[in-house]
Design a protein that fits this description.
It holds the Pfam family Mannitol_dh_C. It is an enzyme of class 1 (oxidoreductase). This protein folds into 2 domains: 275 residues, NAD(P)-binding Rossmann-like Domain (Rossmann fold, 3-Layer(aba) Sandwich); 201 residues, N-(1-d-carboxylethyl)-l-norvaline Dehydrogenase, domain 2 (Orthogonal Bundle), CATH 1.10.1040. It has 21 helices and 12 strands. A 5-stranded parallel sheet has the order 6-3-2-7-8, with helices on both faces. Strands 1-5-4-10 form a 4-stranded mixed sheet, sandwiched between helices. Strands 9-11-12 form a 3-stranded mixed sheet, with helices on one face. Strand 4 and strand 5 form a beta hairpin. Helix 10 crosses helix 15, helix 12 crosses helix 21 and helix 15 packs antiparallel against helix 16. The radius of gyration is 23 Å and the shape is globular.
Amino acid sequence: MVLNLKTLNDLPEGVRKPGYDRADLTAGIVHIGLGNFHRAHQAWYSHRLMDQGLALDWAILGAGVRPADDAQRTKMLEQDCLTTLIELDPSGKSAEITGAMIGYIPVAADNAPLIAHMAEAAIRIVSMTVTEGGYYQTAGGTLDTEHPDIRHDAENPGAPRTAFGAMIAALRLRRDAGLGPFTCLSCDNLQGNGDILKRTILGLASLSDPALSGWIDQNASFPNSMVDCIVPATGPTELALVREFGVEDNVPVTHEPFRQWVIEDTFCAGRPDWDKVGATFTSDVHSFEAMKLRQLNAGHQVIATPGELLSVETIAGTMAHPLIGGLLRKIEVEEIVPHVAAVPGMTPLAYVDLIERRFGNPEIRDTTRRVAFDGSSRHSGFLHPIIRDALAAGTPIEGLALVEALWARMCAGTREDGSSIAPNDPFWDTLTKHAALAKDDPSQWLSQTQFYGDLGQDDRFAAAFDRWLRLVWDQGTESALQTYLDG
């Protein structure tokens, strides 16, 4: 059965359908970067709230700022923005149709349609998932004012290229019309994501309109949030799986049977009661996000990097590999847990057990390539802060240094079986250049201060990295892993 509003009530038995009439929904949220994760996570919370007859004026308009987003828009509109979510539980799969998204804004080079929609009074939240590396930050955490996109938006504030420039243009229109601002809600895996979004917005706005930057600072809100759900990319396997449920969906989403959303309760224009369907509002997002980013997101890089080198295709496959699974456990317990505080209902050691079960779920076909993508942002964002804390505290760093060495080896562009690794990072050319130089002189890798800052100047870390990278090149990844596990 082709998925759309006309066929919704005729879908096969056993497929969970919305309990609300889509005709009753009106938009209150614009979400920029509408990929699989948003539809399996934030949109699901809104959908389940609507099932209770609540938040009917908080429906979602999808948006994108890249030309490639237009293809996704076409597919979504063809099925009236309905999505089939397939939960991949080892005990059994289930399917659910969600309908919290009611439209997709046209994609344009100058972002005029997006700006116009965000300027409407009914829109009270603009949320985003633009990836960890999409916030135009320097290694020092400031706005990269020399980036061509930022320079363009500063010089052309009425026809911006970035999502942030579009948000600023919409906020200008709202201010000039006497409307209040909307809440700017980041849903990306960044420590203090709301604070980072605020710095990006205020920094960019100040380049063209300091008075507007001040108005945004005083009136808008930027909640920090922590999001968590493993959501694989959609490919032939997922397209075949949705058909097994009797649904023809060109953009289905699969996900694990776990979700978490922890949000700082600072919304300048109201919000849905997401806590009624499992989200957590708290004044202490930092502790939750520190646990998740340091243990789960950093842990993903720990296993994906050697997995790619050893031609292990999936994350579940890495957990089944005795050396990679052992690497994760030892690094988590000995090198990460000492720098993570407990949160209500969860200790760091219990969280290690939880992520091992989640990573090892054989139903989740999450590829090592997807998880290893954009290592320049993910290593610097997830692993390097732990290394810095460990160096300051004098606690072990050997496993973390090994992972950095494995990343340098991976960026040489070949696996240990001789096959090529396709470019997998926005800075792939730079990384491969330094990886080649580092084969004979490991310090060349750490000289990339745009990723490492001053970490390469720390004698203890540099020495450990040098030793591990030489061992990886001389004896191979498995030998290096075994040496660490035996140590």
